[in-house]
Amino acid sequence: MLTSITRWVLAHRRVVTGFWVLVTLVGVVTINSSTHRFTQSFSVPGREGFETNSRILHVYGNGGNYPPLVPVVSFPSGKTVNSPGVRAGLLGVESALGRALPGTRTASYADTGNRAFVSRDGRTTFVLAYPPPQSLSFGSNAAAAKIAARALSGATVAGTPVLLTGYDALNQQGSGGSGPGVLLEGMLGGLGALAVLAFVFASRAFTLGGPCTRRCRRQNGESLATSLS
Fold first, then answer.
1. In terms of CB atoms within 10 Å, which end of the chain has fewer, N or C?
2. What is the spatial order of strands in the sheet that 124-130 belongs to?
3. Count of structural domains, the chain
4. Structural contact between residues 13 and 194, judged by C-beta atoms closer than 8 angstroms
5. For every one of its 229 residues, what pLDDT tens digit does the chain have, with 9 covering 90 and above?
6. Beta-ladder partners of 108
7. Which of 146, 148, 106 shows the shortest CA–CA distance to 130?
8. Structural domain of residue 130, as residue ranges?
9. Distance of alpha carbon 229 from alpha carbon 220, whole angstroms
10. What is the DSSP string of 34-93?
11. Are 205 and 220 within 8 A, CB to CB?
């Protein structure tokens, strides 16, 4: 079957090339509207995890299915979470997030005393911050991540810079890069595919105007078809 397909493609080069040119043009025109229609849904009604997350969201107005923002502090050698000024600094981070994002629920080692917020060596700790969700889609709280990043810009805990991570923070940073957009990437991919087709179909062995005779071209095509199959 593969042999027959290969022979048909080689015998209808213009049709195949025209088809892929048309597909590329349609893709370029519709790619933006198509990607904007993508949605994410993690709803599993009736299951324990889903019901628990729904209850959390109903009671607190945040959290549940929606991931937290996570400010992280890694202290240099000789300093730990028990060093002077650390607890006050962590509470300051929570306060800054609460002011910038009203309704945000936070938790850290400073206000819980729970060592689950601290690394084994005591030099790294973090804050969990659950801002109110913007929409019902998972990972769509980019605006809150931007606000939190501005609120914590230049913030320190006992002289150590505070870094912001979390699903939404990383997603927002990745989408805000200066790399090529989806449209340009699609165009480049389509042009690359067309270049491959042009290279194959324009080779001397299969060009009608080339030095190879019709019989030679047919034999070369059959040899290629056999090798591909």
1. N
2. 105-108, 124-130, 70-74, 163-165
3. 2
4. no
5. 778 888 888 788 888 888 888 888 887 777 777 766 666 665 666 666 767 766 766 665 655 667 889 999 999 999 999 999 999 999 999 999 999 999 888 999 999 999 999 999 999 999 999 888 776 555 567 888 899 999 999 999 999 999 999 888 887 765 555 555 556 676 777 777 777 767 766 664 544 444 555 555 555 555 555 554 5
6. 127
7. 106
8. 48-175
9. 14
10. HHTT-------TTSHHHHHHHHHHHHHSS-TTSPPBEEEEEPPTT--TTSTTHHHHHHHH
11. yes
> At how many degrees (to 10) do helices 2-11 and 13-35 cross?
100
Amino acid at 217: R
**Prediction pTM value:** 0.55
Residue with tokens 């006050």: 88
CATH number for position 83? 3.30.70
Strands 156-157, 160-161: pairing is: antiparallel
Q: Check if the beta carbon of residue 117 is closer than 8 Å to that of residue 125.
A: yes
Nearest of 41, 34, 3, 2 to residue 139 by alpha carbon? 41
Per DSSP, the three-state class of 4 is helix
Residue 188 to residue 215: CA distance in whole angstroms: 37
Cα separation values, 60 from 9, 77, 102, 194, Å? 61, 38, 13, 54
How many helical (H) and strand (E) elements, i.e. helices and strands, does the chain have?
9, 6
Are 102 and 11 members of one domain? no
Domain annotation covers residue 144 = yes
